[in-house]
Amino acid sequence: MIPGIGLPEIIIVLVIVLVIFGPKRLPDLGRSLGGGMREFKDSVTGSHKDDDELPAASTEKAEPVHSEKVEPVRTEKSDPTPAGGQSS
């Protein structure tokens, strides 16, 4: 443990946290804190949950999301008429 922090100090901190957040929000707070610590550990060690479980469908070639042909946007520079407005 950290020098200078004993059991009485930890109990005081826990009571203050209980008063601030209330008994209904403590499980969610602990769950989110644990999830954050797990993500941090995974990022530091380089192991990810997604790397271990690759679905079989990911090996197949996926269809493109947008199959529509997109026309380029025309600007004033690509206008076929000269700057004077008259064509010759």
Structure description:
This protein is mainly α and 88 residues long. The relative contact order is 0.04. The chain has helices at 7-21, 26-45, 49-52. The model has no long low-confidence stretch (mean pLDDT 75).
Portion in beta strands: under 5%
Count of individual beta strands:
0
How helical, in percent, are the residues? 40-55%
Number of helices: 3
Described by strand count, sense and barrel closure, the largest sheet is: none
SSE order: HHH
The best one-word shape is elongated
Strand pairing plus helix content: what structural class?
Answer: mainly alpha
Low-confidence region ranges: none
Averaged pLDDT: 75
What is the CA-CA span between the terminal residues? 88 Å
How do the helices and strands line up, and which of them pair or pack?
Layout: H1 7-21, H2 26-45, H3 49-52
Task: Name a few traits of the molecule.
single chain; 88 residues; mainly alpha; 3 helices
Write a short abstract of this structure:
The chain is an all-alpha fold and 88 residues long. The chain is built from three helices and no strands. The chain is elongated, with a radius of gyration of 30 Å.
